[in-house]
Design a protein that fits this description.
The strands form two sheets. The protein has a five-stranded antiparallel sheet. Strands 6-8-7 form a three-stranded antiparallel sheet. Helix 3 packs across helix 4, helix 4 crosses helix 5 and helix 9 crosses helix 14. It contains 14 helices and eight strands. With 300 residues, the protein is α+β, with helices and mostly antiparallel strands.
């Protein structure tokens, strides 16, 4: 199995990361768990430069004895990698990300096969982290659910609080944003207190409502109580007053959402802002745009 993550049309990003003591770790946007170069060096009990040398010599032919042995260990486990690490720019910094399977192969080498350079620290850590334990430890430490079962939780929590909030005869933007939110989650976005796309939609739609005098056409909008789950900082000001709109305007709203918000660039602008703040991986933003706002074919 090829484990080196692909960096094709949708560049990889960092989905989750954290530093635990001297050990940096995280999960890439395709679900690959990794250690930083320094973190792997710490586990192996060697200098950071030694891990860097392994990376720089990885593609050489013929391979250096050390790299050849590490690759052999990796292949015996059923994997291969075209590179020892992946370089990801995140938050203005380049991160050297070593996939978990590569890390285990390097760790096993320094635990048993490095001759005079065998490290007791590497041996102890290998015993603790062999098999799937390193992968599981990374997921657990950074709070990543590889099954994807928990990624809908915060969205569902908001639905349970607000699905019947608007009075009869009115709709609210949160319920109408479910398709966009669902696609964002499938693309890998963490929907929660930092990524609340319905706020962006609501602000742009509210300006459209006022600028075009839509009240004269559809009737007056009104406020309704909107609530956030207790684990959201926004919950401190619950219930929050939010606009709801006459059902007569629903068709007009949906046309506006497609033509102006999604295809008009407002949605991509929102995602770009989240990427710049580090709340969203670039690959997630690109996948969401490609799914929700595909390139339009010219009319025949």
């Amino acid at each position: 199995m090829e484990i080196t993550p692909s960096q094709g049309a949708l560049p990889l990003g960092i989905e989750k990361r954290g530093d635990f003591g001297e050990i940096g770790m995280g999960v890439l946007s395709d679900g690959t768990p990794y250690l930083s170069q320094r973190g792997l060096a710490v586990l192996c009990g060697v200098e950071n430069a030694h891990i860097g040398t392994i990376s720089s010599q990885w593609a050489e032919s013929p391979a250096k004895p050390r790299v050849s042995k590490i690759k052999s260990i990796l292949e015996q486990a059923g994997f291969k990698a075209s590179a020892a690490h992946v370089e990801i720019r995140h938050g203005g910094t380049v991160h050297y990300c070593y996939p978990a399977e590569v890390c285990l192969s390097v760790l096993e080498y320094y635990a048993f096969d490095a001759g005079a350079n065998v490290q007791e620290q590497a041996r102890a850590n290998f015993r603790m982290l062999a098999g799937s334990k390193l992968r599981d430890m990374i997921y657990r430490q950074v709070g990543y659910d590889p099954t994807g079962q928990n990624r809908f939780t915060k969205w569902h929590d908001r639905i349970s609080l607000n699905h019947q909030s608007a009075p009869k005869g009115y709709f609210h933007v949160f319920n109408e944003a479910h398709t966009i939110i669902y696609e964002l989650i499938l693309a890998g976005a963490e929907i929660g207190e930092k990524t609340v796309v319905d706020i962006s939609i609501g602000q742009h739609w509210g300006r459209c409502w006022e600028d075009h005098g839509l009240e004269r056409q559809f009737g007056a909008r009104r406020k309704y109580p909107h609530r956030y789950p207790d684990d959201h900082p926004q919950a401190r000001s619950n219930p929050q007053e939010s606009w709801c709109y006459p059902l007569a305007a629903l068709g007009h709203y949906r046309e506006w959402l497609q033509d102006q918000y999604i295809e008009g660039g407002k949605f991509s602008g929102y995602l770009d802002g989240k990427v710049k703040k580090g709340h969203l991986a670039p690959s997630v933003a690109q996948l969401a745009i490609a799914t929700i706002a595909p390139t339009q074919l010219p009319a025949a």
